[in-house]
Amino acid sequence: MTTLSTLRAQFIAGDYTPTQAVQASLDTIKKADGEIHAFLDVYQDALEEAKQATAQYKAEGAKAPKLLGMPIAVKNNVLVKGRKATGASKILENYTAVYDATIVTRLKAAGAIIVGATNMDEFAMGGSTENSAFGVTKNPHDLTRVPGGSSGGSAAAVAMNAVPAAIGTDTGGSVRQPASFCGLVGFKPTYGAVSRYGLMAMGSSLDQAGPLTNSVADAELLHEVMAGLDEMDATTVDSDTYPDVPSKETYTFGVPRDFLKTGVDADVLEAFAAHIESLKAAGHTVVDIELPLFEKGLAAYYIVMPAEVSSNLARYDGIRYGHAAKGDTLLDVYEKSRAEGFGPEVKRRILLGTHVLSAGYYDAYYGKAQLVRTQMRAELAETFKQVDAILTPTAPTPAFKIGEQEDPLAMYSQDIFTVPVNLTGVPAISFPMGTVKRDDKMLPVGVQYIAPHGGDARLFNLGKKIYDERP
Amino acid sequence: MVLFVTMNRDDITHLASLARIRLEDSELEQFATELPAIVDYVSAVNSIADEGDTKPSPGVRPNIFRADTITNQPNQFTKDIIEEMPHSEGRFLSVKKILNIAD
């Protein structure tokens, strides 16, 4: 397990070089990825960049850009110019990105070396990576289990030690849940903190890119490189958009007790209770809170998200780029290209979104769901008058077996604790809170901390205290 | 409020045609079973959003515009974009004809 800060110190001292680090990444991928399948594409030419970075450290030492020479992996729904950008979908199987996403531009400018593109659920729709058109990713902690999703490839890439950090995207928990399943730190920024330019749009009012790392400090480092106003994304916010959310010595955390009563595995609750005890022992205060609307968030999410999916994915029509089927008429080309190009979960969500947006149903579904979001924001604002952050398990279960969850509705319930965060736009972080035993294997489980809008720095502060500096 | 939560194959066929996706028989069968359960589940929003005069809030920032200036070089992306087109002629994207005018 490597952290970026360890690598940085080694690179500056010269006892380990970017060339060695990138070579080690490529070697690990070659050795282990046949089994795990975290990567959809591996960039062998990253080694050339690494050699330049090694030379630059010799010349500049500690003055070198802060991510110089760091091997990272990027989820394949993030555009990297000149590289395949598939979204793990057959419809973009041969698509090459023509520009860099803003976050990629910023990571490259900070010196990061992208060694490969990671597997995911098709267009980020799913919680297991089983919906990839190019095969499932396996959880490095137990190869019979899923790594979570949709950023499962990014999580597995870090958990298998191929890279010290990877970038994912989070629309309803897609960074935090795989972080929980793979024993990592996963961060979902305040909506608008990070530019969405160059990310394949899924739910535009929900999507944010975030890091998967081995420490909270590393997540903070990557987030700070990626975050900030971007002319190419009008929803990006700056530091004075929201009131200041200060860091503190000790915190008051709120636990929505009623929310945990059903559907959460007993040993996940046990790990959660032990985590709360450790917080109290460290001088923090933990109180019970009520968030009645949060419990209903999942219903609102599975209206808003498919609605946005159905309109965002209308662009994949076989005309300008991507898979094009042969057809006699234009309509024929559209319908066949989309039939051949999309997998079952994507079709399911497009149909659901089309239904909730159709005439006569719009007000009852989409309109109502938007009202729920407003009410949830108000409920949160009240709650954050009493507590500094909200605490939940990240997911109700540890990693489940590949092929175990067949019912879509049961799969959606995985997102119960994570989707309210995206619906309201607040930031949240997940880091490991312990392990639970399944089939004689110890599986990691994560805890989620939710802060008010603009409270990203508070989450890093408490995360470093509670996780990075753990005894 | 009880909503439409039964969906038959014709309903699914209609949705698929709106969504421009041609479905196989087996898919119609599958979605006709799965979608009503999901729609039923999400209808819960109707029991929680009826109170008060809450208005949807689109976002925290007002609509913003960048300066109306040219930011790309001429033809900066043209070649790369044309290369991604399934069918092109020279600098043009070729598509099926969309009008069938009878004599």
CATH class designation of the domain at 9-48 in chain B: Mainly Alpha
Strand content of chain B: under 5%
The total count of helices of chain B amounts to: 4
CATH architectural arrangement of chain A: Alpha-Beta Complex
Backbone structural class of chain A: alpha/beta
For the largest interface in this structure, which chains are involved and how many residues does each contribute? Answer: A-B, 70 and 55 residues
Distance between the termini of chain A: 17 Å
What pattern of helices and strands is seen along the backbone of chain A? HHEHEHEHEHEEHEHEHHHHEHHEEH
Overall outline of chain B? flat
Q: How many DSSP E strands of chain B?
A: 2
Q: What is the CA-atom radius of gyration of chain B, in angstroms?
A: 23 Å
Helix fraction of chain A by DSSP (H/I, runs of at least 4) = 25-40%
Helical amount among residues of chain B, as a percent range? 25-40%
Uncertain segments of chain B are none
- The DSSP helix count of chain A reads 15
What is the quaternary state of this protein?
Answer: heterodimer
The average pLDDT of chain B is 85
